[in-house]
Amino acid sequence: MPLQPKRRRSRLAPRRKDSAEPVQVPPAAAKKPEKKTVTAAAIPAKASGNRKRTAAKPRPATPKASPSVTKPRPATAKKRQSAGVAKPAKGKAATSLEKLGNTALRVIPLGGMREIGKNMLVYECGDDMIIVDCGIAFPEEDMPGIDIVIPDFSYILQHKDKIRAIFLTHGHEDHIGALPWLCKDIQVPIYGNQLTIELIKLKLEDRGTGVSGVTLKAVKDGDRISAGSFSVEFIHVNHSIADANALVIRTPAGVIYHSGDFKIDYTPITGAPMDLSRIAAVGQENVLLMVCESTNVERPGNSSSESKVGEAFAELFQGAPGRIFVTTFSSNVFRIQQIFTAAEQFGRKVALIGRSMLNYFNAANALGYINMQPDTLIDANDVDRYAADQLVLITTGSQGEPMSALTRMAFSEHRRIEIVPGDTVILSSSAIPGNEKSVYRVINELYKRGAHVIYESLAEIHVSGHAYQDELKLLHHLVRPRYFIPGHGEYRHLYRHAELAHKLGLPWDQIFLLNNGDIFEYQNDNARIGGFVQASGILIDGSSMGNADNLVLRERRLLADEGVVAIFLAVSQKDGQLIHDPDIQARGFIYEREADQVIRECQKRITAYARRGNGKPSLPEMVRSGQLRTQLESLLFERTRRRPIILISLVEV
Ligand SMILES: [Zn+2]
Ligand SMILES: [Zn+2]
Question: Does the domain formed by 74-301+465-545 have CATH 3.60.15.10?
């Protein structure tokens, strides 16, 4: 059994005090922090880099207001059997069950539940498993792009031989970003729409792993792919990136509708509106389960059409005296298209600033998704050849990322381009919660340099890619699932989405609010939460992802937040034995009294390494290979939940 009923999930208290969730730490966890991080032990080192920590949140208790949606984590295996049990409901899915026997269907989110990011779901039926999406998240409040969190792949690795394929709904980082790590260990075909596949190729090449050994298969809207006993249909939806899909997953146990990220746009920039008629037809198939995104469930009404943005751009471009800078997410091909359209309308040339902007643009352009005159796009090196009022520059940095082109320009740190009075800067995407401070810091600088800055004031330039309440309601009515799992959101989003489904007529016992790792199980015409698997987050050290600027920033942050531990070792050249006890100094790390004990433990550990023989690496070898640092890092993290910078000096005498 893949379940681990005896072992509680890692439930570390969040390191930062200001968690927004109404989290209630289970009594057992509150008393004593767990000594072992579950993740660190179970993930192969090569898949997770050498620094890792769990990003798990304590399991929230059941809110009073929800009758039977979510149950508190049962304490014993026996009790767990009854958790989340839904009463057998009459109707729909009974037919598929008679036909197909008692094959159990299991749905296991490995990320994306009660959090924003790292979306990943496992569907399992008999001996077959498929994975839908494999995304990353950014650690809360940290600078984006420095450290990332990927899902815990332990469960997947344990069942490697059952995995038939990976399916991707679209090319956003929170859905494909963790693939390079998964691809190292799992070689199964990866299916996604065309732009999604192009972006994955870029991603794999970027990380130096390349695409050899990885089977990427580009599909089109409407394609059906079989994988073991599953058949997966790609349905066209609208979103803030091209080639986004919902998936209809047909299994021996019943039909599943997996929404992916979507909105309903009746006037999209390119391509068709969401394929509502196909979805309605699927709704006739007695859908057993719907897993649906919840990002904008708090917003009443309908999201605006992306084409509204075009009108806003035209208005803004009209009055702009000098150069126009527009920041947006590089993945938002529709937005970039509209900037091109507006630029052409006003006789301006467009330059793309920033590598990721160029990468996404080239991928989209190669697929024919950008509609422009051949001479509209100019090289960023040539901007000086044009008058100010003939230029539009599209840059990254809509979130105030410290290393982005816009931030560098704002702080006069960009190699080529400086912001001057007369420039107009349009921030064409709203700040992701948590990034506001960085964004406002950049806006302040832009104003200081005399630029005209357009941000919050124009609602039309912030069109969201996610469905609002009325769009979600429409989808529920069309799909009419028997069971519903809200996904892709923090707890409040999932909860509000459960409420919405209930108001639309679904009984509470057919709605499941899952946490990452929970197993939704459907068998014998009965659904329940049948246990859980390990699914905390794995932190990936951003410095392993390249650029030195990131490394410097990261170290500064670690020094400020976590402190430093310096270790001096003197060993004999002859036999590698310690000449005296390891000398360990800590600064800015933890309070002295606690530090004493941890430091003694480190000393003991080092001494033990020095003494062991049997072909094990000697202490100097461990220092040189970085092994000692890694070992001490995980020891310190286990004991203190901190990751100080560790400096080791070794003298051989
Ligand atoms: Zn998305
Ligand atoms: Zn998403």
Answer: yes
